[in-house]
Amino acid sequence: MRIAKSALIQPGGNAAYAVPAVALSLFSFAYSIKFGQVSILLYYALWLPLIAVDYRKVLGNYNRYVWLFAFGGLALLSTFWSAAPSVSMRASIQYLTQVICTLIAVRILDARTLTIGMIAGVGIVLVYSLLFGYYELDVLDGTYSFVGAFASKNQLGFYASLGLIVSFAAVFIFGERRLWMGAAGVVGLLSAYCLIVCQSATSVLTTVVVIALMVGLRVVLALTPDQRKLLVIGGGVAVIVLAVAGVYLGAVDAVLGIFGKDSTLTGRTYLWQQGIAAAMDNPYFGVGYQAYWVQGFSEPERLWEEFFIGSRSGFHFHNTYIETTVELGLVGLVILALTLLKIMWGHLRRLIEDIRNDESYLLFSISVLLAIRSFVEIDILTPYNVGTFLFYFCAGKLVIARQRPAVAAWMQHRASEPVVS
How many C-beta neighbours within 10 Å does residue 291 have? Predict the structure, then answer.
């Protein structure tokens, strides 16, 4: 059997392969802890073999991607000063290999294919959780929440948030009809249901904010580029003013009260204090990538006991910036923060300046979701995580120059295109 290279690696023309690849990747990320090595090997098997199809097109010019390896490179270097060298080396290699796989995905996926693949993937993940999930008692606030097949309601909420965002994008950004419009509707409803039953305040609030942003952007994009700039600047200032006023007028406490939370965010503010104190012990380079939450170390053992974490694993400071500073110091914090800001600014700029840029419309919305969640979760810090995948996918797309639609460029070369057996 002979398969044309375009069927595997042509952006926009490889949906038969790329959509299942994205869907299975999301399933692997969601349940990598549950299925272990099999899940991770599946993820690698979906992307790494594509290098053999056409390494030049699949890998591209990595000189342009150097800045994307800065954080992962620092994580690997931290092995030399890590409090747990073997842990840091293993985790950093896993992180870097996920970055490489993600950059392969960047080269072969367009935004529409990513969206459709995520609809399929989130649908599979949520159905699996509904079939095999369970409720869990939160010992800190005394409530039962549905955590699905995850170990945390916030992870279930994250996938539900992504499901609503890509469902919206499929219909209102990419104009899907018939099959994928129906699929988007089903996954959107599943996501909304899971968002309600998991009772994750973080996920509900961030989803509402991002969906509202996406709706608002539709109004902005109806204007000319110059008018967009003025409206975005004015809107940004207004949001900042309202946010500050909300803090001082008690709006934050009122919103948290709706979800049964208080101003301590169920103990997170105390956890943040402990994290800041830990970061001050090694302020510049930290204790090493993933070298803080190690069994046998006194401080994490104390915190696990205080927060009733019987498994003594899967816990963190619930803040990307504090977690980063503890593990990789201020150097790591600056690298990560600048990368996130570059991603958001880059896609916002393209969105404003281009007559139409559906890709940046979607990726800017996703990057905003990751940015908001970064204050209470660590979605972009760990390997084999959908947040890490999306973070580097958004970043990788900025490296690819804006040019003619990918499909048109590929079609010009199809006549002379070799095939693989």
Answer: 23
